[in-house]
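From the pipeline queue, job 12 of 40. The input is one protein chain; the requested action is below.

Action: predict structure.
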Amino acid sequence: MNAASPNLRIDPFGMPKLQSVNPLAMVLSALVVTSGGLLAALGEGDGAKWAGAALILVGALIPLTLKMANQWERAIVLRLGRLDKVAGPGLFLVIPVIDQVAYWIDQRIQTTEFNAQQALSKDTVPVNIDAVIFWQVHDTERAALEIQDYRRAISQVSETSLREMVGSSMLSTLLAERKAGDEMLREVIGRKIADWGISVISVEIRDIGVPAGLQDAMSRQAQAERERLARIALGQAEQEVAVKFVEAAEIYGRSPAALQLRAMNIIYETTKEGGATILLPTAMVDAMNPGGVLGLTQAALAAQQPKA
């Protein structure tokens, strides 16, 4: 940041622009110059003319002497090349020619966009990352005197730190743990620029772009992974159903009446929808007789026992 004239401010891009007019200084200057002109024109004698000329000179110097900084601004005032004071906000005085307002520092929270194009991750995948950093000047004296152009330096440090983080991280980590990446960048960048009197409020990664071919491969991999999980879930469900069927078979084996009630409930559930008519074979009705089923079971067990 090169020294600027007292009439210049530094905009957010580090370029000088005309200082906003100080209304109070302009009004006072106009009043004093007008008074001096009237005194010189209407006064009698050389004394009045000299006094009028002096007033005109004072009025012309008022805009160079009376300065005003906005609430969010601080002015770095140099006297004969050495730091004299940090002025503002509000009105302050400088000595023309001797004093110089070298810099106007904006103390509001500001943003800087930065990116890493075609940066290689730890698993050698080229990625494009866009991010933004929120920062604020907390020490105007150090920001003005310790570094030439802190805005450009913040941009360069941020980009370098982003590339370092990408190179030390896997692509999957960058995609899944974006908040952790934001916090890491905030700490790294904040540590590097702390000596300049600037603090980092936050860093946010806005977008992570990967090549189109890799996006297709990642999509197919994710689809295959979801299909694998779906098949595993289906197998587990089948296993649980089989276990429940075995438990139900054991219960029905111990209680034929429960089996008959279950069969009757199935018939009821089938016929209650739409008024359907069901024809049942006689053999099926007999099979629902728990007494007959129990008798057949006992007869089969007796036939299997050896005769004495």
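Job complete. The beta strands are 8-10, 16-18, 66-69, 73-79, 82-87, 90-93, 99-106, 110-120, 126-137, 198-209.
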